Predict the 3D structure of the following.
Amino acid sequence: MHVSHLTLHDFRSYESAEVALEPGVTSFVGRNGQGKTNLVEAIDYLSRLQSHRVASDAPLVRAGADQAVVRAAVVKDGRTAVLEVEINPGRANRARINRSPLPRTRELVGLVRTVLFSPEDLALVKGDPAERRRFLDDLMVLRTPRLAGARADYDRVLRQRNSLLRTGRSGGRGGQEGVLATLAVWDEHLARTGAEILAERLALTDALRPYVGKAYETVARGASRDDAEIAYRPSFDLAGATTQAEIEKAIHAELARRQRDELDRGVSLVGPHRDELLLTIGTGSPAPEEPDRRSHLPVKGYASHGESWSFALALRLASYDLLRADGDDPILILDDVFAELDTDRRDQLAALVAGAEQVLVTAAVGADVPEALRGTRYRVAGGEVDRDDA
Ligand SMILES: Nc1ncnc2c1ncn2[C@@H]1O[C@H](COP(=O)(O)OP(=O)(O)OP(=O)(O)O)[C@@H](O)[C@H]1O
């Protein structure tokens, strides 16, 4: 798929912008702070309805305006659809397809699919477990858009259950004993919605694993495909549960076991919001129990800066490969990544992505972008986006 036209109104620094795009590689080059990332962020936002830079929508609206509009003509299998989202901070956003309103904004998710590489990706590896859970959930929803509903339901259940536990702890509603009856209802919701998310994350981790090893081997000099591993670590023992129904039972059992703790601490301690995607790399000598395999250490806390970057790139490349294996050709966005990479990694990355249907690249210095990814070049300066035919 590719975007053939992008229109922005009051999005970030743009009062208004119209950019015609083509399949193949397009690079946006300009000094810092000129609005290059804002352009690609708009396309990525349409894919997930979430920015890669900020958690809330307010910063996406131009200072002084009260709503932003992002509109893109998206071409898939020769057919064009015009997707539009109206961003209204503090009020409901609205989405349209070919000018017809959608009943729910989240129905837009996944109609345009992007895989975005950015300097923020280092947080995938070095940041809190929440970063890696978000990575899995974003990819899960891109592959199976109906799961956007499951994810939103789980977040809502968790918020309401936490609020009930807090109320009990502070003596409201008859204190801890008083909230128990209502808690049983929220336990049901949490176990049901949590089991769906957890089962999907387990399946996704299994599907992604071989692609991560392969991608790491390509981007990290001298590495083999066994060197990068991912493993899903639930926060409690699933006792062999793998199906959604079994996981639901396991969550119920753990909720019963931890009920006293939850009431005392006033917070939900069981569920996929406490899980971790463990990333490890092979390092040093072989493990004594497995002579063919190097011993593994967690990336977080042990890996070098370069290894951490390679792992972050491998996670994105693996996402891209997995979506392609699903029969999709997502839009690749490389936002400001080349300045962070040495020449070898730049060239390797360029070679891997050059064949995508559409690649959008941003860079402050044109010379940082490998020649294979020069493509059609735009200069971005002071909010003006002009084709550079030089
Ligand atoms: N909501 C907003 N309203 C007005 N201006 C904004 C808003 N959000 C961001 N900006 C401005 O947009 C500019 C940043 O644009 P962007 O992140 O696209 O820069 P860039 O060209 O990618 O720069 P760099 O090369 O440093 O990454 C900044 O000058 C910032 O002040």
Remarks:
- The radius of gyration is 23 Å.
- The chain has a mean pLDDT of 92.
- Residues 105 and 139 are 18 Å apart (CA to CA).
